[in-house]
Amino acid sequence: MNGNAYFFHHRAAEAYKFNEEHPFDPVRLMLSIDLLKEAGALKDEEIREPDVEASDELLALAHRTDYIQAVKQLDNEADPRSKSVLSEQFGLQDGDDTPFFPGLHGAASSIVSGTVSAAAAVMSGKVQHAYHMAGGLHHAFPDRAAGFCVYNDAAIAIAYIRHHYKAKVLYIDTDVHHGDGVQWCFYDDPEVCTYSIHETGKFLFPGTGYVYEKGTDKGFGSCVNLPLEPYTEDDSWLECFEGSLRKVVASFQPDVILSQHGCDAHAFDPLSHIHCSMNIYSRIPALIHQLAHDHCQGRWIAVGGGGYDHWRVVPRAWSMVWLEMTDHKLAREIANHKKLRLPGGWLKRWRMRSPFPLPRYWLDEKKDIPAIPRREQITEANRSMLAIAIQDL
Ligand SMILES: [Zn+2]
Ligand SMILES: [Zn+2]
Question: What is the DSSP pairing of strand 169-173 with strand 256-260?
Answer without folding.
Answer: parallel
